Amino acid sequence: MPKHSVIPGGDDEGSTVHRGANFPTHRPRVFSGIQPTADSFHIGNYLGALRQWVSMQETHETYYCVVDLHAITVDQDPALLRQRTRVAAAQLLALGVDPARSVLFVQSQVPAHTRLTWVLECLTGFGEASRMTQFKDKAARSGDGHASVGLFTYPVLMAADILAYQADAVPVGEDQRQHLELTRNLAQRFNSRYGHTLTVPEPFILKEVAKIYDLSEPTVKMSKSSPGGSLDLLAPVKQSVKKIKSAVTDNDREIRYDPAAKPGVSNLLTLLAILSDASIAELENSYSGKGYGDLKAALADVFEAFVTPLQERVAAYLTDPAQLDAILADGARRAAEVADVTVRTVFDRVGFLTAT
Ligand code: TYM
């Protein structure tokens, strides 16, 4: 093979990191993902992550992924997974992820993710993976000895997702911080062993929305696995209004932001502040002397105003699954153009023979 046909970023190119190209910009790059494991995203997903996904399209080169490979780390019904993957994509589009400005795709359609995972797994310590708290929690829930190896290596696949795109920033909620730390460690480890190859990403976690809490148990994170206290974007609005009105608060009457002493009220204030574009201080002022019922009624109103048109847009996308699949297929093609460059470079640096 002539010397100059070696892969970009290989030996011949010194320490240059090739990032692939999809956009004619030099904007910093973002990657993030979400699992298609529920019939709807919840407001924690939206405020903690997806809202930033949408706004970062203005400033970054953005790659957003529905992570179906991650979904099968626990049992999934195949027909339901396929349906939820489309529903996830439809929600992202309806929330404002724009395929003209972002690469929106499904993880299983881009083989680079699993190819890079193997290399990263071989750099991950068994003890290091064992320390991941989400694994410990989910493994405990699935019963002793029943957790899959896939669930154990889940964070390494997540690292591969991010590193394949040489992402600079990763907008996520607080629960993903430890996985981001592992991702950074793996990138640094690869670079120090094989020469500078992978961008070390920064978590992008907004403090005030990093952890949205369960409405019925406001000291635990809102989660897909506890539907009782989660506020789902696609749930019937009446049901959500009912949940808001019966949200757990406390026994005094003061509307004040104090997450330690008043977790329920503080969570409602956070939700109302973001959805009504007000600051917490403004809300504390305007609700001084009013009751929790007033706060809940206001939140119910803004939530309804937010989800009603959103649900219509999602339904419209879902009437044409072929069009949705075409958007995702185009996204996968554009994603692969970038991720394949990284994998080729990584395989070369590790010492694999280049296929001719
Ligand atoms: P997932 O699907 O559980 O959640 C998607 C995003 O929503 C955030 N989130 C929350 N934020 C605030 N408050 C909450 N209660 C709340 N619940 C969820 C999550 O932090 C996440 O940002 N492992 C990831 C998916 C993933 C990924 C990636 C993310 C796979 N590969 C690469 C970023 C980069 C997950 O299970 O997210």
How would you explain this protein's 3D organization?
- With 356 residues, this protein is mainly α.
- Helix content is 51%, strand content 6%.
- The protein is built from 13 helices and five strands.
- The chain has a three-stranded parallel β-sheet with strand order 1-2-3. The chain has a two-stranded parallel sheet with strand order 4-5.
- The termini are close together.
- Mean pLDDT is 93; it is low at 1-16.
- The chain binds tryptophanyl-5'AMP.
The total beta strand count reads 5
Mean pLDDT: 93
Please state the CA-atom Rg, rounded to the nearest Å.
Answer: 22 Å
Structural class: mainly alpha
Regarding quaternary structure, what we see is single chain
State the main characteristics.
mainly alpha, two-stranded parallel ribbon, 13 helices, disordered N terminus, binds tryptophanyl-5'AMP
Task: Sum this structure up briefly.
This protein is mainly alpha-helical. The chain is built from 13 helices and 5 strands.
